[in-house]
Design goal:
Helices cover about 25% and strands about 30% of the residues.
């Protein structure tokens, strides 16, 4: 009587098959993680861009009705300030312009916190935080006493106001930290004071 050989997988063949499946699984997991990280970074970048534009619009809207003579301190080029005090026109009464109480837009002692204030330091003080993600320095700037981004300003902060004539240039860089490192978005607007 002849015995039939049963065919099956040897232990070596099974080990090779499991090793190939494990490699395939690891590669697939790496691809999915990379896609997830890319999606997360893009989502954060888009949210930061939206936030930056929203905050910049608020700043522009606040100072567009200001009097250039009321700007304190005077951030004339080639210098910048990260804090701006101004007064806006509320209208005309008896032929005279009525001005608002002093308003301030600037960075707090915590440099990532951007705020608007009215009557700062008085009993009638009002403060509203507009943003908590301002970068310490403007895009491409390093704290080295040099103009790293070639815009004429040295060690420019994440919020800066530059006055040129009656036009104020507002620059804003927001930053969020992720596992992969910081994500930044920079916006800029020029505002012509209308009063």
């Amino acid at each position: 009587m002849k015995q039939r050989g049963t065919r099956g997988f040897t232990l070596v063949e099974l080990c090779i098959a499991f090793a190939l499946l494990a490699i395939l699984f690891v590669k697939l997991t790496m691809i999915l993680n990379q896609a997830s990280n890319t999606h997360r970074r893009q989502s954060v970048a888009m949210a930061l861009e939206d936030q930056s534009q929203h905050v910049l619009d608020r700043i522009v809207y606040a100072i567009v009705g200001s009097d250039p003579a009321s700007l304190l301190p005077d951030p004339s080029a080639p210098f910048f300030k990260n804090r701006l005090q101004f007064q806006c026109s509320l209208g005309v009464e008896d032929g005279e312009v009525v001005w608002s109480d002093p308003e301030i837009i600037g960075l707090d002692e915590n440099p990532s916190l951007l705020y608007w204030a009215q009557n700062e330091g008085t009993e009638a003080e009002r403060i509203v935080v507009w943003c908590r993600t301002v970068a310490e320095l403007f895009a491409s700037e390093l704290p080295n006493g040099a103009d790293d981004n070639a815009n004429g300003l040295t060690d420019e902060t994440g919020l800066s106001f530059v006055l040129e004539g009656e036009t104020i240039t507002v620059r804003l860089t927001l930053e969020r930290q992720t596992k992969e490192g910081p994500i930044r978005h920079t916006s800029e607007a020029k505002v012509a004071c209308r009063n």
